[in-house]
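Now for one specimen:
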Amino acid sequence: MTSPDRTQGYNQALLDMATLSLAELARTAEQKAGKRTPAQESHFLCTWMADSLKEKRFSRLVMEDLKEWIQQGRTLGAGADLKGLLERIVCQYGRAMAEPVQLGAKLAALLAELEEAGWLVFTDVEVDAKLRLQGQGQSSLVISSREYGEHIEGGELVKPLTLYVRGDEPRLASAAFGQGLLLSQGNKKTTLVKHHKAYRLMPGNAQSALALLAKAND
């Protein structure tokens, strides 16, 4: 088996790895007399990932992910839910990569959805220094007015944009998935809005690390 082109993007490398891993799980399951238990599925995937890492089956771009998931599989067993993780990656990345266009318009739809759900949404405040948002514990999302005004042209995201969020992260992940958006993992250290996490949205959904994933069945 040849290694994927190492110059490919992270998103494609991750999707290829997850798709092939699930296909191998399904292929080998057909050779078994009975259905695998979740523990057996986790053990198979953990072993498959470890072998893949040794044999360099996949792009170097996903090596750190594989190492982390192998460790989780060895530590948590079925609790690592490696199959569920891979299925979520295939579902979410497949959707986001199918039409990685008009992300500015999709972001506007995401903001409208959260606002309708009772979130405080601000896109008219300049965020260039540490800010503290006054609120009553209400979920909130802030985007710098400069970025919102200059990084979106004709409904398309042309430059990276930061969302500062305080609220239910699974709700944010579900809303982003619904719009076909890949958000970075939240980061408290880089935030400029107190008590909020910073999430990044990239042009073309081109993340360089595992995106925030929605829960299964969202």
About this structure: Residues 103-205 form one domain. Helices lie at 10-29, 38-55, 63-76, 82-98, 103-116, 145-150, 169-179. Residues 1-7 have pLDDT under 50 and may be disordered. The chain is about 45% helix and 10% strand.
